[in-house]
Design a protein that fits this description.
The protein is mainly β. The protein contains one helix and four strands, in the order ββββα.
């Protein structure tokens, strides 16, 4: 927050051990579809995990908000 004065909040997180881009949801018809299909093409889920974006899980250790943002 010190490096970017426009930042209004800071939250701690850790890297996810597995990528959700490899997960599936089920359509109304009962077929699997790529979890991120609303944002990514279907073939994206078939990429090697090393090429997929890293994702992070908020861990709740640190949450900082600027008072002015809250007010």
């Amino acid at each position: 927050m010190l490096a970017d004065p426009s930042a209004t909040a800071l939250r701690s997180a850790h890297e996810a051990p597995e990528t959700p881009f490899k997960w599936f949801t089920r359509s109304d018809q009962g077929y699997f579809q790529a979890f991120g299909s609303c944002r990514c093409p279907a073939w994206f889920a078939n990429w090697p995990r090393q090429l997929l974006p890293k994702v992070f899980i908020p861990d709740g250790y640190v949450d900082v908000l600027k008072t002015a943002y809250v007010l």
